[in-house]
Amino acid sequence: METQQQRRHQLRTPMDPLVSLAASFLSAFSPSSREHGTTTSTILLLPLPVAAARALSVLRRLALLATQAFISLFFAFLSALSPPPPPPPPSLAPSLPPPLRGDRAGAGATAAVASTCVERALGHVLWVASRLPVASRKYELVRGLAERLLDENNVGARVAAVTRAALAGAFERTLGQLEASAGGEWGPPGMELAVRAVRSGVRWWRPTVAALEGNDAFGGPAAEKLAAELLWLGQKMAECGAAREAAVQFGAASRLGSRALVAEPTLQVALLRLAVFLLRHANAAEFEQEEGKAAVAEQRMAMLRSWLPLLCRGSNGTDAPVLSGRERAEMVTVLEELIEKLRWEQQEEALALWLHHFAACPDTDWPNLERCYTRWYAESRKLLA
């Protein structure tokens, strides 16, 4: 008898929540076996008040389960709006490119293999130097090694070409890392504002998401170090005659230029110095040697379109002006000459861009292109007459 009762008790015990819920719902309309004995097989309906109370209890459970499921789905949706955690940093030792095929014989094949090895070895040093933090005690060693290898490469045209290729690759890679750290890839400005509003709600509901997401401000020691590396690489490229490649790549980084407007002041200083350095080279005669006039004008316009707003808004720096008075005057002259070398409609676009950003920043009066603007307007009026 005891064994049969234990079996019945095991049969009454739910094996999962669904069975438990079904049993609870059935018990709302039928009495328990304890009240009417274990031998009866007739289902007796409970009085209406008791059945209603049990049904209400079951409905309350259903409502709680539905509420819990809705809340879980809601926070899963909010979590999807937050950015994923940053990927792990790549290894400091990049994989070697595949070796050249041995189908070429003679001195030409040997020279090709040697140039590839030199470029690859120099690329390794530049890559490690860009990845090491400044606080690392090995940073100065690797940076000094890179300086020494670059200085010793001035021994011929072939070696100089290898140096330019390695520096251009390092500049492109470092610029890509800085652009990736900038974020801000949300399409139109309205979409970015909407996403920021939703993220503000997520931070209020889930502080852990806010901790993962971090601040919307663009900056930090890592970004400042990348910007300093870009300036150093640009200077080295200028020394070996490859400043044009650096200016073209930097001008094409339009998203980085827009994010620089909301960057931390110390990062703005580093990017502003880099922009001033490359704008000077974009105005030089060497910039026009390899491309046609239309392509050169478009590349110069890309430089102004991406970085002229930063010159208008970030020229004060943190505690002191970024540029001296003489450097500011020289840069105004460079900008005027650069704009005058553009096509007529490009000049209008550049001057309108300057006017809007210059007027929107009340803290600085530089760069003042009023003279260039009035001169262009007078020439346009003559064409109209």
UniProtKB/TrEMBL annotation:
Please provide the Gene Ontology terms (biological process) for this protein: protein ubiquitination
Q: Which residues fall in a compositionally biased region of kind Pro residues?
A: 86-100
Query: Where are the annotated segments for Disordered?
Result: 86-105
What keywords tag this UniProt record?
Membrane, Transmembrane, Transmembrane helix
Bilayer-crossing regions: 58-81
Name the domain of life this protein comes from. Eukaryota
Query: Which InterPro entries does the record associate with it?
Result: At3g05675-like
**The protein's name:** Uncharacterized protein
User: What is the species listed in this Swiss-Prot or TrEMBL entry?
Assistant: Triticum aestivum (Wheat)
